[in-house]
Write the structure tokens for this entry.
Amino acid sequence: AQTVTQSQPEMSVQEAETVTLSCTYDTSESDYYLFWYKQPPSRQMILVIRQEAYKQQNATENRFSVNFQKAAKSFSLKISDSQLGDAAMYFCAYRSANAGGTSYGKLTFGQGTILTVHP
Amino acid sequence: DAGITQSPRHKVTETGTPVTLRCHQTENHRYMYWYRQDPGHGLRLIHYSYGVKDTDKGEVSDGYSVSRSKTEDFLLTLESATSSQTSVYFCAISESWGDAGDGYTFGSGTRLTVV
């Protein structure tokens, strides 16, 4: 089974600065997808960014970008120009694309990182 | 989130009582999931459904059962609630299984407290 690890329970950043959240995962598969979700205090789960494992190019969505290192099984999220509204819990997640595997299609989540943004 | 609603939003119940949480979607998505969120564990899959009356267990299914009699509704039942089932429960839907790599769409969660 796949595992996802977020080793930073909490992170903080000054408004307008850049912060990087770490995520590592363990898998023997070659085809999969990786995601970052944001959970603000409202509890809503919001998809921030997605990365296909077969793509070498790192995904970018406005101020959010990832550093995907497939060989190292690392998937970090960089938030540039941090805003107060970025304060939330962030989850890294893995979804298998291996049709022959028992984990196919299911999302596996990391433990989460609480991000605080200081004005 | 638009297209998926969970009820109730909050619930307090006593140990040993049965509890049913409801997830309703208007997106006509085939796949539906129940997760629980606990500090230090992230979200963990309880059960999932890949069609009407087609369900299967996730990694933390003990003490839970599910039913899906219609495409739009997915029910999670705690037959006899225990304090260890105090958690926030999320329902999610997806249009595809694994091949398209779409992220799930989540409901807004149910906070369940078992006293």
Remarks:
- The interface with chain B takes residues 1, 4, 6, 33, 35, 37, 42-45, 47, 50, 52, 91, 93, 95-99, 104-112 of chain A (CB under 8 Å).
